[in-house]
User: Fold these one by one.
Assistant:
Number 1:
Amino acid sequence: MRSARPVSHAPLRLQLRFGATAAPPLSYDKLRQTWENHTRSLYTFFDEPLLIVEARRAVLTDYQGREYIDFYNNVHQIGHSDARVAEAVYAQMLKSSLSTRFLSEVTPRCMRYCVSEPLSCLAFSYIDALISKMPESPTGKGWSVFLVNSGSEANDLAMQIARDYTGRQRIVAIENCYHGITSAINEINSSSSTGISASKGSDASATLEEGVASSKAVLDGDGTAESAPAAFIAETVQGVGGNVDWPDEYLKEVFDHVQQLGGITIADEVQTGFGRCGTFWGFERDGVIPDIVTMGKPIGNGFPLGAVVCRTELAEAIEDAKLFSTFGGNPPAAAAGLAVMAAIEEDNLVARAASMGAFLRSGLESLCDEHPHVFERVTGRGLFLGLHLRVPSAAKKHPHMPAILQECLDHGIVLGKGGIHSHVLRFKPPLCIEEDQIYRCLQVVRDVCVKLA
Ligand SMILES: Cc1ncc(COP(=O)(O)O)c(C=O)c1O
């Protein structure tokens, strides 16, 4: 464990040794030109793209020195540009950044003869740290970990593990879900979340509104061996779908059913894990122990890192697959991951997500009470909350959401949207958010929405 020391958020003054070249001065017009001409699939949230030149804790600064409080970026769980993560990665990059392929070959010797070798220690320390956060595995055989580079890769691999283990193909997801960007995942993503028309193939979606019975029916399929589920995958609070919490018992009942059918349960904790919901894992509240947990986004606090933790029996089933990721779990990534875990503990961020989440939630609920014609309800958990705006009955999308987001931005608050009708304001700030920042956000959201919605 790292020893505790005061947190410094002063700019890093690292000595660059190898004659680093300075970045050319930024020209907004030039960047905009490149964006418009050469990046067709890269959409931005605002008509006038926000050019951020610096980010610290929960505050973003744009190229003109304007500051914004960030209620959107849930990657930077411990705060933007955290010196502890930057220093850990920097120090490791100067020692070694060998790929995992090499790591796996030298590891046994390093472990035996040279325990202080940073290469082996970091990846294994990180794996141990992840496992220490897991509940006891239901079969007592323990957990295995695969380190990858993103949430998409983690979910893709989880689906592959479930298919190989069960010998089945069908993956069941929940309507309005988002699990990533690979072509395998696009088979199960809801097209309302991605805009990509999913060719559902043998995969299927359970509709939450129709309740547990309907989800069980989707899982049962037509009773043939072919329609038996390989896996059921769920975000433990649905993100892109609008920060929507499952009804009590929903996940428990559906997970039990999947297990009775011989399928694998996958909890996608890419957004909800690592304290976001006021518990370390989102699934803790639901009283379930998934067979596979996937993670990404905040686990590197901005450094690309993802992981799959699965019951060891499942990992054994794909032992011969010789899985290999050049960068997955490389030493700098493991250094970032360890620094993030230590910082979550050091700054007591899980409890902070619960207390600040309760503060934000009570403010949002007051808005619903005061302006019931504008705001409908609040959903989510911890610092992962959704404020649902009322949608005019004939509208498919909330007609004023783009203007609302823009005006919040003009008042220094960055927010995101979600929900099937683009009608949910999503709140998922860094967990170090302060009370006065939340208070300012509530004021802006109230004034802007009451004026525009
Ligand atoms: C719940 C969930 N799972 C997986 C992903 C994919 O993660 P990434 O974009 O890092 O590949 C996302 C991304 O938004 C997500 O929200």
Note: The longest strand covers residues 229-235.
Number 2:
Amino acid sequence: MTVFWHRRDLRLDDNRGLERALERSEDPIVPLFVLDPTVLEHASPVRVACLLEAVGALRERYRDLGSDLVIRRGKASAVVPGVAADVGSERVVWNRDYSGLAADRDRAVVAALEDDDVTWESVHDAICHEPGSITPNEGTHYQVFSYFWKKWRDRDKRDPVAPPEADLLATVGTDGDEIGGVETGTLPSRTELGFESPEASLPTVTPAAARTRLETFCDGPIYQYADVRDLPAAGGTSRLSIHLAWGTIGVRDVWAATERAADRAGDGQRESVTAFQRQLAWREFYAHVLAFNPEIVTEDFDPYPDEIPWRDDTEALEAWKHGRTGFPIVDAGMRQLREEAWMHNRVRMLVASFLTKHLLLDWRHGYDWFRRHLADHDTANDVGGWQWAASTGTDAQPYFRVFNPISQCQEYDPDGEYVRRYVPELEDVPTDAIHDWPELEQADRDRLAPDYPDPIVDHAAGRTRAIEAFERARGE
Ligand SMILES: Cc1cc2nc3c(=O)[nH]c(=O)nc-3n(C[C@H](O)[C@H](O)[C@H](O)COP(=O)(O)OP(=O)(O)OC[C@H]3O[C@@H](n4cnc5c(N)ncnc54)[C@H](O)[C@@H]3O)c2cc1C
């Protein structure tokens, strides 16, 4: 028997590790999922709800094929070798995860398997081109996205992998709760795991939902993507991030669908497909950066000679978290996060800039909040996005280019539609006043929307304070 250990690849289709497990195995596969307490320690109600739904769907898919998913709770370094021993497996296969936490866990699992003389294999699956395969001359990872993109774009991509045939999977025993001689185990509920119900309404996180989303997007919206991707009210992005984060869709499937869309593209539409593919490359760029620099989850990627003098201001941090900064587009974004466990990319950049520059609060506070509230949290993208905004990352926003949340609101939400959707206090406020809110006279703010907060910082003063602080950190 071979055990296939699912982690952030909660699907059967386009799963390279699963294919590899089947390829070299003469016996059927026993699929396994482990609820590891170390991973749960870093979880949140949103993430646990997503995880349980995706694992439940994965199990159903195995059951439809006459097999099942073995589910266990416990430390992976004990559970994986334990299940391997119980099913008499000499080989365990999984897909690689590039975060430092996962690497620590995997090292412990490998040590335990090797102690038991069980062979193991980890397979590249989560991205098209694995870390180390697209490198500058000195051979680690690119630090400038545009160079990475050119190589990534021109490199041949693998085709999607077919799902396994039913007869290659271990079948369920006659009493229905055992495969390969081990109990299948139950999937605990959210409350059994000690998590509250998420306050956000979550999208469905299953392979079927992922496929529908991909097909719908590639049937039409992908051709307008370049024009509307920066407009948060338009809803013109794919919303595939949650599926890529949980692995309810394989990246090769996504790539292949975009290539088919490119083949069907009419005049001027090809560029829009390329603009979308470029975003997939950002995801891989950040995965490479994290794989080579696991410490960037807590440390600045590109530290300044002196410490950045981050402020300590709980009140401002709380106002930011709860969408009560008095900057309408920032507040709309932070409220969208709480309501949908997702936020539009342009607004993620804005709220991250606002926290780290206008409020001069440490990016780690923002990362921590996003990690808990985003259903699509992905360590590489999340930390990459935060360090970009904080001007501490790879190919980051220069410290002196501070986003102006007033002009950004005018430019990207010209009709105030996005703001009104998430900030009901401003529903009846004229669009110009929404855009100018932080700079209106106090009397006008009191008259137009007495329940909506005044700005917690002066835009120009906040910008100057940030630039001066970063200059001090640079030793200027
Ligand atoms: C501070 C900050 C934090 C972020 N945290 C995350 C995160 O935890 N998880 C996450 O998947 N993305 C993160 N992003 C990137 C981006 O905002 C989301 O990927 C995007 O908004 C997801 O929506 P979508 O699937 O509709 O994107 P689309 O525009 O449809 O893009 C398609 C896919 O490309 C990838 N992608 C798009 N933009 C980026 C980007 N800037 N960086 C890396 N990959 C990208 C995603 O996988 C996305 O699903 C973050 C960005 C910032 C500025």
Note: The two ends are 63 Å apart (CA to CA).
